[in-house]
């Protein structure tokens, strides 16, 4: 009984100190780097197209331990359950997702790119992102980029660009720290 009374007394004293602000500095802690991260697409910009009119594009993420562990490949964007497997982009269009977008307003027209999947990865692996153009004969690789993941405390943003004589694409990627999925 004495231990319970001591516990409640200590809890009340701590609550009073925290509410008055006098103990704030001593109770502040820094977050440890997360063992897991999520990878999400912020925006996809089509400055120039592979085909005339529109490109039907999608982005795949490949990694050794995508969580939940259903496959080593996931169609990251657009979410196939939203509007089919691909997003139709015209020249000078920037498709943004539900998160903050990174579209140059002076050079592109904004279009809603729909939701995407945000799979979890172990923070010590390499994730490969591929921007594909959907074709009847075989899908064309427009951009292929790997990210070496690491434990992080804050969100990181990446920009990848590929410009050829046939097309010009830019993708913006967000990597967020995540707690253990279990």
How does this structure look, described?
Residues 1-25 form the signal peptide. This protein is mainly beta and 182 residues long. It has 2 domains: 1-30; 36-178, Immunoglobulin-like, CATH 2.60.40. 15% of the residues lie in helices and 43% in strands. The protein is built from 3 helices and 11 strands. Strands 1, 5, 6, 7, 10 and 11 form a 6-stranded mixed β-sheet that branches. Strands 2, 3, 4, 8 and 9 form a 5-stranded antiparallel β-sheet that branches. The two termini are 36 Å apart.
Descriptive keywords:
182 residues; mainly beta; Immunoglobulin-like; 2 domains; six-stranded mixed β-sheet; five-stranded antiparallel β-sheet; 3 helices; globular; Secreted protein
Q: What is the string of SSEs from the N terminus onward?
A: HHEEEHEEEEEEEE
The overall strand count is: 11
Question: Strand portion, in percent?
Answer: 35-45%
- The CATH topology name of the largest domain reads Immunoglobulin-like
Helix content: 10-25%
Q: Secondary-structure map with pairings?
A:
Layout: H1 2-20, H2 24-27, E1 36-48, E2 54-62, E3 73-77, H3 80-83, E4 87-90, E5 93-96, E6 109-112, E7 120-122, E8 126-133, E9 140-148, E10 156-163, E11 168-178
Parallel strand pairs: 5-6
Antiparallel strand pairs: 1-5, 1-7, 1-11, 2-3, 2-4, 2-8, 8-9, 10-11
In short:
With 182 residues, the chain is mostly beta strands.
